[in-house]
Write a structure and sequence with these properties.
Blueprint lengths: L9 H8 L1 E2 L9 H9 L3 E4 L7 H12 L6 E4 L20 H7 L2 H17 L4 E2 L24 H17 L3 E7 L20 H8 L1 H8 L4 E4 L17 H11 L5 E3 L6 H4 L4 H11 L4 E2 L7 H17 L4 H21 L12 H9 L1 E4 L12 E6 L16 H7 L4 E5 L4 H9 L3 E6 L6 H13 L4 E4 L11 E4 L5 H12 L2
Parallel strand pairs: 1-8, 2-3, 3-4, 4-5, 5-6, 6-7, 10-11, 10-12, 12-13, 13-14
Antiparallel strand pairs: 9-14
Length: 497
């Protein structure tokens, strides 16, 4: 293994400055603090780094004892993708729920409150919001992370979210440029391709990014997607035509460009993270996000050495690396100046639940009757495999709240061809509450609901993904997301409180 030069040579410092690595544990390891002293200017936090708000505040204070302007980034979208509340579920509904309400003042207020909580914990860069237009209802990785399928709706809510988040002193990082919504492949696993013309890209996918830029988004995250209309050879993260030609020159964006996670298979399995990082900086990216899977000193050293070697060989212009590092430092300076701001608006700890309640779409059958007062039910959660962005460690559903409201309620998780029959057998005489997530994407899930409704027409169906399937059941509730508050709001309707 190579080692970094210990000292302050400009090239090494710049190479470290453009990295946004992750690390294990709930305190900063010695190697990370050492690299901060050598020039590292950013770190990325994940669920593994967070045990509580108090612990997180202590961790960020530890990092700032080494460098007071360090960028501490997190992937905190609210809704299904949460790191602050990875073990309990989020206190905030995600983008799809906010888009369903379509009140930009509400979106701004939710983003402000989420930003306030991040700022209180010492986090100053949020890899959010997702500005992807969910044009493909079968998208396996965006879905409820998008405000919706209408470009104008997504654009206005992206701008509102950016405004709210940054008014709390937390930099927004609008993603995934130039738009990940029309994909059928998850870039965590492979390289997605979007085959549409320039007219569609500009009118649909780029509209929310233009709105984010106009709203002053301090950062933009690139997508690991191939868009042949823009570049036939390289994915957006590695494309000078897309990052410099389109984002910088055509759209006039002057903030920080951050890559999506470089260890995702779309890059690591095609170019490798070292070559990919060099190509990304050369293309116009300013910061290399890595650490969701690779979270060690060796990765930091490998990437820094690769950037230094590329400059020395002439493959990467030293001026381009210096410019990228300067943009990182500029954002760090902005966050230092913006720390502690919240626009003079008082805290609103209930805004997430208020938003989740407003986002519900409820359909009752003609013969629907609520369960008898206090009667326990059986919650059957039909669980798809979680994508990597969401993770499988965050609880979801309505069971916890129904167990509190209806003592004696039972619950089970079911999957596969016999899921419906298994849920019926477990329910006994209890009314079934069938909880699904993107029923339209999973044939086995739709079949399970068919089985339940054939045997038990009084079944309640709760859709916690994108509600594309036809509403059915004695009571049908679309929550537009699986955040904890979405489950709470749905349970209130089921019980009638």
């Amino acid at each position: 293994m190579t080692t970094l030069a210990h000292g302050t040579d400009t090239l090494t410092r710049d190479a470290l400055t453009v990295l946004q690595p992750g690390f294990p544990g709930t305190t900063a390891p010695d190697w990370l603090l050492r690299r901060v002293g050598e020039g590292l200017a950013s770190v990325g936090l994940f669920g593994r780094n967070i045990a509580s708000a108090e612990q997180l505040a202590a961790l960020t204070a530890q990092l700032r004892s080494e460098r007071d302007d360090i960028l501490v980034a997190i992937d905190e979208e609210g809704g299904d993708v949460t790191r602050l509340e990875v073990r309990t579920g989020s206190s905030f509904p995600g983008n799809h729920a906010l888009g369903a309400v379509d009140d930009t003042d509400l979106t701004r207020a939710v983003a402000l409150e989420l930003g306030r909580r991040l700022a209180e914990c010492g986090v100053n860069l949020n890899w959010a919001p997702s500005a992807d237009v969910n044009a493909n209802a079968g998208n396996p990785v965006i879905g409820v992370r998008s405000f919706g399928a209408d470009p104008d709706l997504v654009a206005r809510h992206t701008a509102a979210y950016v405004s709210g988040l940054q008014s709390a002193g937390v930099a927004a990082c609008t993603k995934h440029f130039p738009g990940h919504g029309d994909t059928a492949v998850d870039s965590h696993h492979d390289l997605p391709r979007i085959d549409v013309g320039l007219d569609v890209l500009h009118s649909r996918d780029l509209a929310p990014f233009r709105a984010a830029i106009a709203a002053g988004s301090r950062a933009v995250m690139s997508a690991h997607i191939l868009v042949p209309a823009l570049d036939t050879e390289r994915p957006a993260t590695l494309s000078r035509r897309i990052l410099t030609g389109l984002l910088r020159e055509e759209l006039g964006y002057d903030g920080l460009i951050v890559t999506d996670g470089m260890e995702m298979q779309a890059i690591s399995a095609t170019y490798g993270i070292e070559r990919g990082s060099v190509l990304a900086i050369a293309a116009g990216a300013d910061a290399i996000c890595v650490g969701g899977g690779l979270a060690d000193d060796e990765t930091v050293v490998q990437l820094s050495d690769a950037l230094v070697a590329a400059v020395r060989s002439g493959e990467l212009a030293e001026e381009r690396l210096a410019d990228a590092a300067a943009r990182v430092r500029s954002l760090a300076a902005w966050t230092s100046g913006a720390a502690g701001t919240s626009g003079g608006v008082p805290a609103d700890p209930e805004i997430g639940l208020v938003a989740a309640r407003r986002a519900l779409t409820v359909t009752r059958s003609a013969g629907y009757a609520p369960s008898a007062a206090g009667a326990p039910v059986h919650v059957a959660a039909f669980s798809p495999v979680a994508n990597i962005a969401v993770g499988d460690e965050t609880p979801w559903g309505v069971a916890a709240e129904l167990e509190r409201l209806l003592p004696g309620t039972t619950t089970g998780s079911y999957t596969g061809a016999d899921a419906g029959a298994a849920a019926l057998a477990a329910a006994g005489e209890r009314r079934v509450i069938a909880v699904v997530r993107d029923e339209h994407r999973h044939g086995w899930m739709a079949a399970a609901v068919d089985t339940l409704l054939a045997a038990r027409p009084d079944t309640v169906v709760v859709e916690m993904g994108v509600p594309q399937a036809t509403p059915r059941g004695a009571l049908y509730i679309a929550t537009h997301g699986a955040a904890r508050v979405c489950g709470t709001a749905a349970a209130e309707v089921i019980v009638g409180v």
